[in-house]
């Protein structure tokens, strides 16, 4: 046999602490056909700075779709199927880099996914630039060993093979045709080189994670062995591996024979179905009151078709896949939403999810029993949803499983007429919905019975659009798209249905009121500015108060939300007003000449607007203007002090009762903003920030010029002639 090794790699990604599925970094690989060995090379590394500590990285694996994970232990939506993912942990302690290998023998061909993340996020809101987070990097590479000339086992034809040694297993493959109910594999004339009965182990199927359903048969001391598979995967290559359990120098010769038993499917699809589908989109269906002259089936023909269909092993119901959007599909039944279900043969619906782009959403199946159609009150309609192949013996086994897949059972009856199933991240494959009527006293009483079940099936990015307290986000990894729910207002879970930490409506209203009404503390600062003739500064404070109030009214995560304009616009205006308020306050304290002050006002505002457009949350967008304004203020105060040969401002009352309280409030506000805010306490810590900043502005504004009288606007407006007065700048202020 000729083996070929291949190597696949993807770029490293920076890991994040986990709070929702978008924090997990996804890697998507495609394993080629005839792969006998798969090896993952997982490389994790961290930075070298003092902020880097010991860290545990969790890595999840899954075949066919992204892994469904729950690191936070939150609730999933009702009726959702959850099977734990296969995961490992990689620890970064004293070493800067960790390399881990994961081997998978005889892996299934197709899509494989890896998701990696750090532990749960601490929830602290970090200001960009105040702290440097430690970078944790993760990279996944894939090595595959592929057999280029794997023998093909033809149905009904015995194929002799030889296992040279136990160290080298025999690999063959067989193609499973559609509508196969049972596959029979036989080993004949299995003897060793010493003409003794052989000892071999036969493995059917490939490994899929997190669950693997390989079938293993051990033949010891036997010449002939056999194995039967119920409901093998349709229209797929099935790998068979035979390993020798004998001595190291003993070869094994064996004949392999595969046979299939197929069923004869019945179908209700015809040209009439497609005609009805076309007319259902443009007008009434054939046979309705508005479709006079349309071809319809008579009652006798309908009964004859029903009796003929009961002679088949299954009844196919034609289903049309209608693509609506990205990861959004609706399935329409050509014969209407209701399907007939009997006890003689299962009714089968094919749900096509094999495009490779359907595994990033949620498959939702809803069954509704028509009670009036049930001729037997105690009968039950049993359904099974499975991938790759359907379950065709629900009435006999009552088991919702195929050869290599554990399906999802559903039941509807007159007592419980509705059932729903949500498959999170369904694997890429053909999915089947099987329905059959079951009677408690035996199938004899069900032979003449029939039930009508309405089937609604669709693929959606997020179930229920994440509810009122979540946002459905479309995520991307290279060309692959998948969806996840980002929850708010304390809600959690896969679809934001976990109410463990959810905020009540009253708490949401309180948070909104605190964050908005705390901006009214700017009113004293505005009044002080107007009283002291700082009208430009008062205008800036009014602008900041207005946009901060309505930005926080729009920024709320719950139902207490009011947006007067676009959210992005409100956020930008709030950030701009906050920084410009600090800028004009410090420049006003510097007591420079008016013309220079107003030039700096305008020039600084333009530069701040530009920097906020580049990076809105950067700490230097606030610290840069503040530091530059402080340099100007200190230089001006030094100049005034040197010129007067006295400390500036000269009054100790100004220092004790105004400057020191204002500076203290400002430092406390910065400390709260930079180091104390978390997701849980944001609504009151940020409200404290509003109160402290607005209060500090009222303390820090300098007194008005000596020559200006308070509220003397009427004299200025009515006086036409006046004696010239000295408007020179004062070099000091007296309180």
TrEMBL record:
It is a multi-pass membrane protein. Pfam families: DUF3522. Keywords: Cell membrane, Disulfide bond, EGF-like domain, Membrane, Transmembrane, Transmembrane helix. Residues 278-308 are annotated as: Disordered. The chain crosses the membrane at residues 510-534, 595-614, 620-639, 655-676, 682-701. It is found in: Cell membrane. InterPro entries: EGF, NGX6/PGAP6/MYMK. Residues 458-497 form the EGF-like domain. One of its GO terms (cellular component) is plasma membrane. Disulfide bonds join 462-472, 487-496. This is TMM8A factor. It comes from Cepphus grylle (Black guillemot). The gene is Tmem8a.
């Amino acid at each position: 046999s000729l083996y070929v090794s291949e190597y696949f790699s993807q770029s490293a990604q920076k890991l994040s602490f986990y709070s929702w599925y978008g924090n997990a970094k996804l890697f998507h690989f495609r394993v080629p056909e005839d792969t006998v060995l798969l090896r993952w090379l997982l490389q994790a590394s961290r930075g070298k700075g003092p902020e880097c500590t010991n860290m545990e990285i969790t890595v999840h694996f899954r075949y066919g779709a992204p892994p469904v994970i729950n690191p936070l232990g939150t609730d999933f939506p009702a009726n959702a199927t959850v099977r734990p993912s296969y995961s490992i942990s990689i620890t970064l302690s004293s070493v800067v880099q960790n390399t881990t290998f994961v081997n998978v023998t005889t892996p299934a061909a197709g899509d494989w996914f890896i998701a990696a993340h750090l532990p749960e996020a601490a929830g602290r809101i970090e200001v960009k630039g105040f702290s440097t987070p430690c970078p944790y990097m993760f990279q996944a590479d894939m090595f595959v060993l592929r057999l280029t000339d794997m023998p093909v086992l033809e149905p009904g034809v015995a194929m002799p093979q030889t296992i040279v040694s136990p160290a080298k297993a025999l690999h063959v493959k067989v193609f499973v045709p559609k509508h196969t109910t049972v596959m029979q594999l036989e080993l004949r004339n299995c003897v060793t080189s010493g003409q003794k009965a052989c000892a071999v182990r036969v493995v059917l199927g490939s490994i899929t994670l997190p669950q693997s359903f390989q079938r293993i048969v051990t033949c010891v001391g036997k010449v002939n062995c056999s194995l039967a598979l119920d409901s093998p995967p349709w229209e797929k290559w099935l790998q068979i591996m035979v390993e020798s359990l004998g001595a190291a120098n003993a070869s094994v010769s064996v004949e392999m024979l595969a046979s299939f038993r197929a069923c004869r499917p019945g179908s209700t699809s015809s040209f009439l179905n497609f005609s009805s589908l076309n007319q259902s989109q443009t007008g009434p269906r054939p046979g309705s009151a508005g479709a006079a002259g349309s071809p319809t089936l008579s009652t006798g023909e309908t009964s004859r078709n029903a009796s003929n269909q009961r002679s088949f092993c299954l009844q196919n119901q034609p289903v049309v896949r209608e693509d609506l959007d990205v990861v959004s599909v609706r399935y329409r039944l050509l014969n209407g939403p209701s399907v007939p279900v009997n006890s003689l043969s299962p009714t089968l619906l094919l749900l096509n999810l094999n495009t490779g782009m359907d595994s990033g959403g949620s498959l939702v199946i809803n069954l509704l029993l028509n009670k009036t159609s049930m001729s037997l009150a105690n009968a039950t309609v049993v359904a099974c949803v499975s991938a790759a192949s359907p379950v065709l013996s629900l009435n006999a086994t009552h088991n919702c499983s195929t050869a290599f897949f554990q399906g999802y059972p559903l039941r509807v009856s007159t007592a419980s007429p509705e059932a729903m199933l949500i498959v999170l991240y369904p694997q890429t494959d053909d999915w089947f919905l099987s329905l059959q009527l079951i009677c408690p006293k035996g199938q004899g009483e069900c032979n003449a019975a029939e039930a009508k079940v309405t089937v609604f099936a669709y693929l959606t990015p997020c179930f229920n659009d994440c509810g009122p307290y979540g946002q459905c986000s479309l995520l991307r990894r290279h060309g692959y798209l998948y969806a996840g729910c980002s929850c708010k207002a304390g809600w959690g879970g896969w679809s934001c249905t976990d109410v463990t930490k959810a905020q009540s409506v009253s708490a949401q209203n309180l948070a909104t009121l605190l964050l908005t009404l705390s901006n009214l503390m700017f009113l004293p600062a505005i009044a002080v500015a107007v009283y002291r003739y700082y009208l430009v500064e008062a205008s800036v404070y009014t602008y900041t108060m207005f946009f901060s109030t309505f930005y926080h009214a729009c920024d709320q995560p719950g139902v207490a939300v009011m947006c007067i304009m676009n959210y992005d616009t409100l956020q930008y205006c709030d950030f701009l007003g906050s920084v410009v308020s600090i800028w004009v306050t410090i420049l006003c304290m510097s007591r420079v000449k008016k013309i220079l002050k107003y030039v700096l006002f305008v020039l600084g505002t333009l530069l701040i607007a530009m920097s906020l457009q580049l990076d809105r949350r950067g700490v230097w967008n606030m610290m840069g203007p503040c530091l530059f304004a402080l340099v100007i203020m200190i230089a001006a105060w030094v100049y005034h002090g040197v010129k007067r040969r006295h400390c500036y401002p000269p009054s100790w009352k100004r220092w004790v009762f105004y400057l020191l309280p204002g500076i203290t409030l400002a430092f406390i506000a910065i400390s709260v903003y930079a180091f104390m805010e978390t997701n849980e306490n944001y609504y009151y810590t940020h409200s404290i920030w509003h109160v402290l900043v607005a209060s500090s502005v009222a303390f820090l504004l300098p007194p008005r010029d000596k020559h200006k009288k308070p509220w003397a606007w009427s004299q200025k407006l009515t006086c036409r002639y006046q004696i010239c007065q000295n408007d020179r700048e004062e070099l000091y202020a007296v309180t």
